[in-house]
Amino acid sequence: MLSNLSARLCSFVLSLFLIAFALPAFAGPFEDAVAKFANDDYSDTEEAIGTVASSGNKLAFPIISALQDGRLMADPDSKKVYVTGTDGKSIDAATGEAVASVPDSASAVRLNNRLRRSVDAALGSLTLQSPDLGARLQAAQSVFKSREETALEPVESALAKETNKSVKTALGEARAAILLFKSDATEVQKLEAVATIKARGDQDALALLSDIGTDQPASVTKAAASAIGSIQSSLAVWSTVQNAWYGLSLGSVLLLAAIGLAITFGVMGVINMAHGEMVMIGAYTTFVVQEVIRTRYPALFDYSLLIAVPLAFLVAGAIGMLIERSIIRFLYGRPLETLLATWGLSLVLQQAVRTMFGPTNREVGNPSWMSGAFELGQITITYNRLWILCFTLAVFAILLAMLRYSAIGLEMRAVTQNRRMAASMGIATSRVDALTFGLGSGIAGIAGVALSQIDNVSPNLGQSYIIDSFMVVVFGGVGNLWGTLVGAFTLGIANKFLEPVAGAVLGKIAILVLIILFIQKRPRGLFALKGRAVEA
Amino acid sequence: MPTKSIHDIAASFSRRGVLAATAGLMLGLASISGAKAADDTIKVGVLHSLSGTMAISETTLKDTILFLIDEQNKKGGVLGKKLEAVVVDPASNWPLFAEKARELITKDKVSVVFGCWTSVSRKSVLPVFKELNNILFYPVQYEGEESERNVFYTGAAPNQQAIPAVDYLMKEEKVKRWVLAGTDYVYPRTTNKILEAYLKSKGVAQEDIMINYTPFGHSDWQTIVADIKKFGSAGKKTAVVSTINGDANVPFYKELGNQGIKAKDIPVVAFSVGEEELAGIDTKPLVGHLAAWNYFESIKTPANEKFIKDWQAYTKNPKRTTNDPMEAHVIGFNMWIKAVEKVKSTDPDKVIDALPGIEAPNLTGGVSKMLPNHHITKPVFIGEIKGNGQFDVVWKTPGLVAGDAWSKELDGSKDLIGDWVGKKCGNFNTKTNKCLGSGS
Amino acid sequence: MTPHMLTRSLDRGAAIFLAVVAACGILIPLSNLLLPAGSFLQVPTYLVALWGKYVCYAILALAIDLIWGYCGILSLGHGAFFALGGYAMGMYLMRQIGTRGVYGNPILPDFMVFLNYSKLPWTWYGFDMFWFAALMVLLVPGLLAFCFGWLAFRSRVTGVYLSIITQAMTYALLLAFFRNDFGFGGNNGLTDFKDILGFNVQAEGTRAALFALSCLALIASFLICRTVVSSKLGKVLIAIRDAESRSRFLGYRVESYKLFVFTLSACMAGVAGALYVPQVGIINPSEFAPGNSIEAVIWVAVGGRGTLVGAALGAIVVNYAKTFFTSGVLAPYWLFMLGALFILVTLLLPKGIVGTFNAWRDQSKEKRSALTTVSAAAEDGVTEPKMAE
Amino acid sequence: MNVMDTRATSAMLYLDGVHVSFDGFHAINNLSLALEPGEMRAIIGPNGAGKTTMMDIITGKTKPDEGTVLFDGVTDLTRLDETRIAELGIGRKFQKPTVFESQTVQDNLLLALNVDHSVKGTLFWRGSKAESERIDKVLETIRLTDARNRLAGSLSHGQKQWLEIGMLLAQDPKLLLVDEPVAGMTDVETHLTAELLKEINKTHTIMVVEHDMTFVRELGVKVTCLHEGTVLAEGTIDQVSSNERVIEVYLGR
């Protein structure tokens, strides 16, 4: 603690001294380099990054990080470069002096991907000893990727001081990466490096090892080859796990889209072609919620989905009940005609949304907790897919519990099993019908909230899910929620294992053909009810 | 056995009903055919889908033409007459495109049609335009391999978009390994074929090219993105050339962003992703991915700034974006006006002959010219996606690139040219000196 | 078809329907060809092509009505048979282009040239001959329907399950035909036809002839349907529709009946598609879209299920509405109107236009006869007991 | 007769050790039953005793898990489907009257006639004098001559029951399975139905399932009482109705 403080103090004093010394001096290489940022030329910028980063100047870090964030402003006329702080205050990048304001003619220094990589590499070596753990880890990783030889020294000194285990590993890997490509590294060092990278075992490691070239000592080439082999075979195992995960994730999307249909179609027998439009309405509800939050309460953005879920349920549920009362209730007992009416309805709803919100996609943002991914072993699990899986299972569980244990659930089951009997026992069947249809639609609505996170929010949203949803419900067995669950995950996983073999299109065709054949084998789906009652 | 009763069920017939319905139908159809043609205006057909899957892209183009007509009428119209738009909705239905084209030309007697987006819609209306001899301005980048007398292609041909983009990646990003990902239809197929041939001519090995096709509206990109990631980890700099169509892009980019594929690791250059498509995504994770177009909204020229201002005023939407096919319509529309003014007639034959050689300023500071092959000259820009859904131009061609109707890279078409001025032929074989097939 | 079957199948209503179709089939082409363009009675070529399209749709609707109206098989994949027939015809038309394609290749259609095909795929063999293509128009949809039906009906897949798997079938075909590797032109499909049997497809005379031919096909399809439904087989079909297992217990092999009528219907749909393609000038995978098949079912519902005339009429009315609404000031709202039409017809006219008319007519007839008939005993149920001998 | 040698049993219908269960519920449990040619048998038993399931098994609608079902001593019915079994000559009347409601009474009978039932046969069918005479005769038997041109759907409940019996007659099977023929009938109708069945029995073997004990008594035939899918008692109506177990589970005290 104390040594850390004194080190910082020292460096502070030193930098004061440096600045004081630099001020009156003539334009040195550092100043020249900084001025190059104003040339608006990618090669010049690249050169400037290199020079600034290796200058050891105290301003290097603020300049480069400003460059990364688009806060480095350059005036092409005066060739002056400014750093705008995150607090809005600006300094002259060459001198570090505060300036009142950046001239209007100045614009942010532009980057392209090549420069972004240079910036990363430069920042990597500059932040290797940052007090922030995350920054150090990131720095080590960007050095691993850039494997700049100049970073070797900072990496080694950082490695000596580092106490955190994961940063230490990352630094070790970065060092190994540099050494592996350093022409004057010893054979022993290189072999050690290969071992370190092999231990990392991921695709980046594979990339690195495959790229070592031919000018390596034979032992290193051999070690690398065997490391590649072992990484590849472990990755092959992981890829099966990954396919399974993708299958689960696709299955959860299918289930989510189909679960509302399992109620309106499966339980009530309404062939609801407007089901997809209920999903779409849910997605648009999310859009409206986010729009309001963006303009009025930006701080709440991360909660937007939590707010949207109940709202989407209510909006879609209410529209569903309206539809039931105005159209569907006249068509009970004529299931095939519900198909026609709801098809018409879906056209109307699509066009209504198109008229209200325009035909183009609408932006629904991912809250921070839905963005990004984490690594589990060698597979990448994206947060949005993970949350959707959890969400789907939660919706399923709640729905199941509701149908089984609540009073309204009991009434719903009673009405769908024997309408006349239920009516004579004093259940208001028409109210139950409306509620059941509303429930199915409402669940479709909350599916829309989740799907808005991975798909387009456009008037065509519903169309792309309707056929899949019907397949899932029919495959699982009409009228059986568990069947829908098993059906969705079976189709999802089968699809994802077929896709790498057959390709996306053929895979999908194969699934459809399998469904057709499966229905021949079990004409009433996976979980069909048996016995006499069925055919009555 | 009395046979009459047998009919009772099956023979539920209505004689009068049939008669009345048929009569009504005849009357109704007669009323369509008897539409009156007003002489005091020049009619301009607008053939863009306003419903169905393509409405997402095409509605804007319909608005663009309405806007341009409005502007032109404010300037007094053309040849002393006002322009009048005739809007129909082919509803993303390809046979309906042909039907509506026929209706526009025969019934509404339009002088020119601006329309179509997908290649199949263009192919569907093509015979109609040839048969009825009218003019179609087609504003979308496409696979090439076509040069028809009645069609003017104001969008990019493959050499005006795909090849410069690949050149840029090779030069600036030092890309050695290529994923060509596209939706499975003709434009990506042809473009990828051209690119594959081009890359091989530049010394790229077969194993460094991965080609992947997905169905329309593909929404589950997990496997493919993972494959790209895997393909990109072979130690060579990798890039994705995306010809993924419209709707499928949003989930694709979302998956890319979420799986952490950054532009600086594996850049994606897209030919079908413009400002409109990005409007549906949070672009922050996508910063640095690329698109190749002949126009970007963010290009700062006086003409473009004025256009955007007027357009937003016309649509009463200060956030309304502009895009490349819109600019194509702007150029095409102005070319048509100039040609009409030149020959002082809207007669399609005269206008068709007058159009090659006509020049019209584009919105990016250059002057585009209609070529004898009915394609136009265009600048090519490579733009990087910015955090605000716009593009930052990182590279552009030094001058304007002439559109090739026939690709030099494909075996079938390398000797073909389109020349409607000298040879009067859309597919002239320069080797055999013959006009092939149906040309002329 | 024996003469007695024909006469049996005709009552006056059917005769009038046939007369109207025949009159249209003769008069419209004549008016188009003989009268001067622009005269009041001249039917412009544009309308001939448009009506030709409607007539093809009417044949498709008849095919659907035959299985849905009379046998209770709701196929949501009939567009697939229509499209397959269309593709068979389209392939013939493509082969007829010969060297007039843009690349001038005498054998390969244009799309194959630019996808670098070196030789014609085997699936295209024989399509340069009209008789072969015509055979395929019937055979391909028929065979698919036969195989599909054989599986499905034998396993007793019924009701909504059958509807959904027919939808899966057409959806799978849609995806397959979209694939360029499948060898049928991918998304662009087959287009830019030149001639049919040596006649230019775009010539007015050819169009008129195609129109007349479509009317003829409609008449033929109608007669076939009428013959089928008014034969004893028709009664068996209705019996199966109303009480499938009762029919089995009476000793009818339900799956054979369903298979027969499903295959017949698919062949009719194939013919409709084959006539459709030269008239609209393109065949493309979007014809396989499940939405198209659903829409075709809706035509039948609008016209009146189980009435045949109604099916044909429904196809024409709905498509006319579509043509009408997609132009002019109504264009932005046409989906509202089409959607509303479907909803209102199902709610207010559950029997469709013709069905409702028939019911109304029967009712008024019954009222009239009720006044004159004294004997109402049979209506009250039990008559005076009499011993069986 | 030599035929006798191949016959396993002289019975028209022979069930032995039949089991069937739905999702763990044993609907039929070791059921054995034999019906002699020309016999009429009444089957009684409480709801859920397995009466209808037994008929389903005989007519091929349900496949038994195990057991033998022989028709005419030679034919194993468990391997055949409904159509084939109907063709063999087993006719069935359903519990709920099932007629073709949207067709006329006459057409209902026409459909039931025991003639060529193939697709080709029906497509090229031409009515014959013999057929229409048969239909006239059946119509007379079931007293629906006046209603011949009415839609079956417009008949009263009792008339539908008769029509269905009439369809059985037209079908002319060797064995008739009649499920609750008098449910919902008036006393007069019930009586007439009993007479009708007795008349039919002169030429056909019949199995009747019925709850109405008066009706069963009127038939005056051998009675089998089923309970929980197995035979509880068999004998004359008096024997069975005095059986302790039968009284306990079915008739009530």
List strands and helices in order, with pairings.
The complex is a heterotetramer of chains A (536), B (440), C (389) and D (253).
Chain A: H1 2-22, H2 29-36, H3 42-55, H4 60-69, E1 72-75, E2 80-84, E3 90-92, E4 98-99, E5 107-108, H5 113-126, H6 133-146, H7 152-161, H8 165-181, H9 187-200, H10 203-210, H11 218-267, H12 275-296, H13 304-326, H14 335-357, E6 373-376, E7 379-382, H15 383-405, H16 407-417, H17 419-424, H18 429-451, H19 463-476, H20 481-502, H21 504-521, H22 532-535
Antiparallel strand pairs in A: 1-2, 1-5, 2-3, 3-4, 6-7
Chain B: H1 7-10, H2 15-33, E1 41-47, H3 55-74, E2 82-88, H4 94-107, E3 112-115, H5 119-132, E4 136-138, E5 151-153, H6 162-172, E6 177-183, H7 186-201, E7 209-214, H8 222-231, E8 238-243, H9 249-258, E9 268-270, H10 275-278, E10 290-293, H11 302-315, H12 324-343, H13 348-354, E11 359-361, E12 367-369, E13 377-378, E14 381-385, E15 391-396, E16 401-402, E17 416-419, E18 425-429, E19 434-435
Parallel strand pairs in B: 1-2, 1-3, 3-4, 4-5, 6-7, 6-8, 8-9, 9-10
Antiparallel strand pairs in B: 10-14, 11-12, 13-16, 14-15, 17-18, 18-19
Chain C: H1 3-8, H2 12-34, H3 45-71, H4 78-97, H5 110-114, H6 130-154, H7 159-178, E1 190-191, E2 195-196, E3 199-200, H8 204-230, H9 232-242, H10 244-249, H11 254-280, E4 282-283, H12 290-303, H13 309-325, H14 334-348, H15 352-372
Antiparallel strand pairs in C: 1-4, 2-3
How is this structure best described in words?
The complex is a heterotetramer of chains A (536), B (440), C (389) and D (253). Chain A has helices at residues 2-22, 29-36, 42-55, 60-69, 113-126, 133-146, 152-161, 165-181, 187-200, 203-210, 218-267, 275-296, 304-326, 335-357, 383-405, 407-417, 419-424, 429-451, 463-476, 481-502, 504-521, 532-535, and strands at residues 72-75, 80-84, 90-92, 98-99, 107-108, 373-376, 379-382. With 536 residues, chain A is mainly alpha-helical. Chain A folds into 3 domains: 21-116, no CATH class; 127-216, no CATH class; 238-535, ABC transporter involved in vitamin B12 uptake, BtuC (Orthogonal Bundle), CATH 1.10.3470. Chain A is elongated, with a radius of gyration of 31 Å. The model of chain A is unreliable at 16-25 and 531-536 (pLDDT under 50). With 440 residues, chain B is α/β, with parallel strands linked by helices. In chain B, helix 4 runs parallel beside helix 5 and helix 12 crosses helix 13 (348-354). Chain B starts with 6 loop residues before the first helix and ends in a 5-residue tail after the last strand. Chain B is globular and about 65 Å long. With 389 residues, chain C is an all-alpha fold. Chain C has one domain (13-367): ABC transporter involved in vitamin B12 uptake, BtuC, CATH 1.10.3470. In chain C, the strands form 2 sheets. Chain C has a two-stranded antiparallel ribbon. A two-stranded antiparallel ribbon of chain C has the order 2-3. In chain C, helix 3 crosses helix 13 (309-325) and helix 13 packs antiparallel against helix 14 (334-348). The relative contact order of chain C is 0.16. Chain D is of the alpha/beta class. Chain D has a single domain, classed as Rossmann fold (3-Layer(aba) Sandwich). Chain D is built from 11 helices and 10 strands. Chain D has helices spanning 3-6, 51-58, 82-88, 105-112, 119-123, 129-141, 157-171, 187-201, 213-219, 237-241, 244-251, and strands spanning 13-22, 25-35, 40-44, 66-71, 75-76, 90-93, 175-179, 205-209, 222-227, 230-235. In chain D, helix 4 (105-112) runs parallel beside helix 7. The A-C interface holds A 271, 273, 327, 330-331, 334-337, 339-341, 343-348, 350-352, 355, 463, 467, 470-471, 474, 478, 505-506, 508-509, 512-513, 515-517, 519-521, 523-525, 535 and C 74, 148, 151-152, 154-161, 163-165, 167-169, 171-172, 175-176, 178-179, 245, 290-291, 294-295, 297-298, 301, 332-333, 335-336, 338-343, 345-347, 350.
